[in-house]
Amino acid sequence: LPENAERTFELLNGEIIEKMPGTTRNSAIAVNIAFEVRLFCREKSLPCYLSTGDGAYQIAANVIAPDLAYKSTPMSDEYPDPTPPLWVVEVISPTDKAAEIRRKRQIYQAAGILLWEVYPELMSVDVYAPGQASRVFQADDVLSLDALLPGFTLPVRSVFAE
User: Fold this and answer.
1) Largest Cα–Cα distance of the chain, in whole Å?
2) What is the dihedral of CA 110, 111, 114, 118, to 10 degrees?
3) Region 126-139: what's the mean pLDDT?
4) pLDDT (tens digit per residue) in 85-99
5) What are phi and psi of 125, to 5 degrees?
6) CA dist 92 → 23, 26, 83, 145, 148 (Å)
7) Nearest 5°: phi and psi at 103?
8) Closest by Cα among 34, 71, 29 to 162
9) Among residues of the chain, what percentage have pLDDT more than 70?
10) CA distance 155 to 140
């Protein structure tokens, strides 16, 4: 509707949920990750299509706008993008509801999408890779995207750099 033009909504398991804008600090985290990925892809001449929180994807019967998403195919002018991303990043804020975080995680996992949940207050990243047990990475650890971008690594500390 016209009155919702400046608002972002997600459809999770049949429920419409308004996605509230995050803090600039959390937004900077997604930008930090996107910058490193884009630079890596450029250096390796790899296809690299990234979107941020305004880009919505159709994932099964859901419409989700992750804080950061990667896919190896071009972005779409369709809303929502019919081709789900291969990897998503959700930057978790203290106001995010645990039930919504869990629902999104389950949707991503059911679709076989790699998920990084970033927790700024803990300086940690929870990684949910398809077919693997979840892992928690702390500030001194190093993340990788070997399944999607072989050779890409990112120190967790760099995720939170200001």
Assistant:
1) 46
2) -60
3) 97
4) 999 999 999 888 999
5) -135, 125
6) 11, 8, 24, 20, 23
7) -60, -45
8) 29
9) 90
10) 7
In sequence order, which residues have a C-beta less than 8 Å from that of residue 17 and are 6 or more positions away? 9, 10, 11, 100
Q: With contact defined as beta carbons under 8 Å apart, do 19 and 75 qualify?
A: no
The residues, any chain, with a CB within 8 Å of residue 161's CB and separated by 6 or more, are 32
Locate tokens 């929180």: which residue? Answer: 53
CA separation (Å) from 19 to 64, 86, 90?
Answer: 10, 21, 12
Cβ atoms of 115 and 128 within 8 Å: the answer is yes
Q: How far is CA 103 from CA 13, 24, 41, 140, in A?
A: 8, 24, 31, 29
pTM of this structure = 0.89
Asked if 10 contacts 88 with a C-beta cutoff of 8 angstroms, the reply is no
Sign of CA dihedral 119, 124, 130, 133: negative
Q: Is 74 helix (H, G, I), strand (E, B) or coil?
A: coil
Cα–Cα nearest to 53, from 44, 38, 64: 64
Judge whether 98 and 141 are in contact, CB under 8 Å: no
- How far apart are alpha carbons 27 and 5 in whole angstroms? 21
